Amino acid sequence: MLLKKRGHTWLIASSMVSLVVLMMLLYGTIGSQQPGSSSLRRDYQLLGRPLYKLDLSWPKNPELFGGLVFAVAVNQYAGVVYVAQRGDNVPKVLVFTTDGDFLMSWNTTTLEMPHGMFLADAASLNPTVWITDVGNGPNGHCIKQYSPSGKLLQVLGTPGKAGSALDPLQFDQPAEIFVHDSGEMYIVDGDGGMNNRLIKLSTDQQVLWVHGEKGQGMAQFYIPHSVTVDSAQRVWVADRGNKRIQVFNSITGDWLGTWGSCFTEDAPYSVRLTPDKKYFVVVQLNTNQISLLDAPPVGLIGQCSVVSVIQLADEVKPHLVDLDLKTGALYVAEIGAQQAQKFIPFSLGGSFL
């Protein structure tokens, strides 16, 4: 009788442990599914330690998206998010608050095919939005600076003229620009065009150094697609065609190392740092993944290490991302789903700071 009672107790305990494990798998490290208003499923899965959750309330009017969404840029001081899209008879830029309210659209004719976007001088009284234009028409192959309301302020490159490797400031489908707090600019020029270059410009837009050779070797590129700079004077470039991230010294331009082991299945499309500088956020379009990679300490490059993965639904096609440096919120431009989405960090009560 005692044996039967012990066996019954063991069976109950075992069942409770199994239930706890199942709950952990469903709601802890593996992830969850969220309903959405898009025709494509907006569910996602968190692999590894969950760091983000989807904000289903952002934006409040998702029906405003009318084209293919390629880029996002955040002004954390003003609480504003810029979304760049392509398509016939659609505004090229939509502007929302970080809470999801719609503010305005840019019905500008100066943009053909926006690709990358960066918010510069965010803390100043005169922030500006830089957009790379990969169009083949009279306004394409340029990098353009706009006011927050969409007024064209400046153009880098010659509109409508695809460049060559001979002139560093003659672009051919420039992919993205990163403007440092110092005002220095880093440009990846080569979204499938003739050029495959990483260019650094001074504050007065003079060329400081260039890596511009196509290939698979050190400091060579094949479709450099995204660029960011960390606080340790290192430049990180998503070398899409070579399925790797290359690292350079931001002062000298010297090659420092390569990350490739994390990208055997798909190439990195976008690279950004979280506000606490602990993680790189890297997008892989074809596998519909957003990965968080450990950022190495100063003086070390090493190899990449994936901490967490947000697995988006099939055919979402995430392209480029940006982060709110105040809250840590992650904004994702999605070509396939034709929308931008917001993810909120779990860490520190919803903030990476």
Automatic annotation (TrEMBL):
The keyword Transmembrane helix applies. GO terms for biological process: proteasome-mediated ubiquitin-dependent protein catabolic process; protein polyubiquitination. Keywords: Glycoprotein, Membrane, Repeat, Signal, Transmembrane, Transmembrane helix. It comes from the Eukaryota. The chain crosses the membrane at residues 9-30. Pfam families: NHL. One of its GO terms (molecular function) is ubiquitin protein ligase activity. NHL repeats lie at residues 212-251. InterPro entries: 6-blade_b-propeller_TolB-like, NHL_repeat, TRIM-NHL_E3_ligases. Coiled coil: none annotated. PANTHER family: E3 UBIQUITIN-PROTEIN LIGASE NHLRC1-RELATED (PTHR24104), NHL REPEAT-CONTAINING PROTEIN 3 (PTHR24104:SF31). This is NHL repeat-containing protein 3. The lineage of its organism: Eukaryota, Metazoa, Chordata, Craniata, Vertebrata.
